[in-house]
Structure formats: structure tokens, C-alpha cells
Specification:
By secondary structure, the protein is mainly alpha-helical. It has two domains: about 55 residues, Orthogonal Bundle (Arc Repressor Mutant, subunit A); about 140 residues, Tetracycline Repressor, domain 2 (Orthogonal Bundle), CATH 1.10.357.10. It contains ten helices and no strands.
Amino acid sequence: MPPSARPRSRIQQRNREVILDAALEVFSQHGFRGATLDQIAEVAGLSKPNLLYYFPSKEAVHKALLTGLLDTWLDPLRAMNPGGEPLAEIMAYVRRKLDLARDYPRESRLFAGEILQGAPRMREAIEGDLRDLVDEKARTLRRWMEEGRIARVDPVHLIFSIWALTQHYADFDVQVRAVLGPGHDPFAEAGSFLETLFARLLATGQAPG
């Protein structure tokens, strides 16, 4: 029986988690192409042969990270309730995405790096689970628009704009903090601004039809 098929001991599970956390740090700093197994092993505090016991290649480590990340990334959109009050549901989604950018900046940069490379290790997932979820929520948004509960805008591009305006604060964190200067909380300030922006955009009769 190969190691991957055997039940993991507590130590093996811990080592796997340590390797993945180290890999997240290395990949988010250096990208997939710039990262090496030697760097990941060093950050993890393990030997390279020990690392290779758990993951046979750099690609395997990267894929394991991305597989776990996709669920984390989709959960905030999944939580949008089609039976809820439209504007409140959209504002809550914006807040969840902003919280995700604040709490998981390395994961955000890892995801962005994969997409910028053409998503070679995630294309199937983004053309499957991600697109299916966006289509589902776009139908909900379109229904709310047809019912006159929010203004008419393109629902898919609305979702894109929420992604862009929230993930920016993780992917360009250094730039954001350099421009704002000390004494600012980018995420608190962004939350208030984005709620105002989307509330005005989606208020009935105030957005382009």
C-alpha cells in the first residue's frame, strides 16, 4: 500500500500541515517557478528526503495547496442566501471577501499567481466548480434585478468587481499601506468605502439599466 493510501498518524498529519504552511510561504513570496523544494524544506524545518516522503514533487505540494484553497475561496459566495434581502446579502458577501483578503493574504497571492500563469494546475476547477457557482449566483442576482429589488447591472461582472476590489487589498498590500501611510487600517476603511460604493450602484433607479 502506498504511503498516500495509508491512514496518517498524528505526527504524519502534523508534518504534512507544516510542509503545506511552509510551501504557502515560499510560493506566495517566489511564485511557482521561483520556489524550490529545498526552500520549502528549509522553512518547514525538515530534510528534503522527509518532505519527499509526503509529496513526490513541487507540483504535488502546489496542487495540494490549491485544492484546499479553492473551497476557502468559494465559501463566501456559497453563503449568499437566495432567500435573503438582496442588498444585505451582497454587502455581507463583500465583507466576507474583504475578511478573506485580510485573514488569508498569502493564499490570495498564491491564487493570483496561479491565475497569472494561465491556471495550469487549476483550469479544470475554475472551469468547473468556480464557473458553476458563479452561474448559480448570477441567476439569483438576475432574479433580484428582475423583481426590482436591486438595480440592473451585469451580474457576472458585479461578482468580478467584488473580487477585484476586495482581493486588491491582499495582493497589493505593500502598495496599499505605502500610499495610506501609518495609522490607517486598510481593511476597516475599505469596508466602509465598498459598502457605500455597492449600495449606491445597486440602489433601485441609481445604477445604469
